[in-house]
């Protein structure tokens, strides 16, 4: 197989996501998948590990209070109870920014989260 046809994979460290998280403005959200999609496109790679992305954002959440980690959602717009302060803290922060949070059983979601997804291509570097 020629080198041009080989699929490129990258293992990204938490700090690789730091600048991207900082670019999510109040009132907007990203999903773990949208972070991965952006990073693969930006770096010209084909795959980033979903588990590593989730762990990377968690590390940043617990390490750097200045990053808006609470604006990063799980699949389907679900809030992440592993962030500092748990679900209630993330819910409070998102609602204070005008985002509607709803309960589905024991789980919390940003209602119609797709409407609030940040477009990283418009947010500069």
TrEMBL record:
Molecular function as annotated in GO: methyltransferase activity
Gene3D superfamilies, sorted: Winged helix-like DNA-binding domain superfamily/Winged helix DNA-binding domain
Record keywords: Methyltransferase, Transferase
Matching InterPro entries: MethylDNA_cys_MeTrfase_DNAb (IPR036217), WH-like_DNA-bd_sf (IPR036388)
GO BP term, example: methylation
Protein name (database record): Predicted methylated DNA-protein cysteine methyltransferase
Source organism (scientific name): Streptococcus massiliensis
């Amino acid at each position: 197989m020629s080198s041009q046809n080989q699929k490129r994979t990258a293992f990204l460290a938490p700090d690789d996501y730091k600048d991207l998280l900082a670019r999510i403005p109040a009132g907007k959200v990203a999903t773990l998948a949208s972070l991965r999609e952006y990073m693969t496109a930006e770096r010209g790679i084909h795959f980033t590990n979903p588990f590593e992305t989730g762990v990377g954002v968690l590390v940043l959440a617990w390490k750097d209070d200045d990053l808006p980690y609470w604006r990063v959602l799980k699949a389907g717009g679900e809030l992440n109870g592993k962030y500092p302060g748990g679900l209630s803290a993330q819910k409070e922060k998102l609602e204070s920014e005008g985002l509607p949070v709803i309960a589905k059983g024991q789980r919390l979601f940003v209602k119609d989260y797709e409407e609030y997804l940040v477009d990283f291509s418009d947010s500069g570097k």
